Amino acid sequence: MYRGRFAPSPTGPLHAGSLVAALASWLDARAHGGQWLVRIEDVDTPRCVPGADHTILQQLAACGLHPDAPPEWQSQRGARYQQALDQLVSAELAYPCACSRKDIEQALAARGDGKPRHGELVYPGTCRPERGGLHGKPGRAWRLRTDTAIFKSNWPIARIDAAPTAPETIAPESTTLHWTDRRLGPQSQDVAQAVGDFVLKRADGLWAYQLAVVVDDAAQGISHVVRGEDLADNTARQIGLQRALGLPTPHYLHTPLVLGPNGEKLSKQNGAQALDTSHPLDTLNRAVHTLGLPPQTGAVAEALARWTAHWLRSRLTTWA
Ligand code: GLU
Description:
This protein is of the alpha/beta class. The chain has helices spanning 16-31, 52-62, 78-90, 101-110, 191-194, 209-219, 235-244, 280-290, 300-311, and strands at 3-6, 35-40, 72-73, 94-97, 141-144, 177-181, 185-189, 198-201, 224-228, 251-255. 31% of the residues lie in helices and 14% in strands.
């Protein structure tokens, strides 16, 4: 059973870039005769804008993109995230961390290794239990160990639809996690080296995106994740977390990004305008251009049906 989703963070209204991800996930679900769900990812409450969730749902509806079940809000699902964290702690895969950003910077500098990656510091494992744990300090955040076999390529991938897939395995001693993106092809990441033990629950008490997205994709039975390419870098972490929780791995497709005037990914920070849905067909025609589909005329529902018919033949999903 195909089940897909669009999972916007309500940090503002949809813009041209987020519509591409929404439309691609909708088209992929429809082309597979599957279901399409919407999940509002409002765990990072300081970044959420009041009312943006309802604006996003209205914008989707104006473009003819209607979910097959009522939307869910992550802010309502803390108990599920806590259960998952408890499970990881009992399995000794998660541990509390007392480090502030400054502590991490100092520990990295002491190793002569202070380079931030995308502005994020690679956690040096200071509070791992075998290194003495919290050293008497209060725990702030919870982290997942990335030095275990689940982050290695030879761990078997259990697919949600149990369809026979080529085993994504390389050398048994490999420390990198391999996965295949339906558009980008084979991908790999050494999570321990590139990211380090990553945060599941933040020092401010908020649930981290990685944990919430993995728990919810599984709880909602998501078989196919279609989202923007800027999120591709999170996938190895999410697959590791799925394995740690005994959850199946969905298929992934990361869609092309719409670039802003400065050549960077279009985002609210670089001036993306809220999507104007007063002429939905024009708006959709601009979005399908990024997906390599031809423009359509006529009614929105008919245009969507024609794009759905094109979708699986489009060159976007070469590795499907
Ligand atoms: N909420 C995330 C975002 O808006 C997307 C999460 C996902 O699709 O996995 O960037």
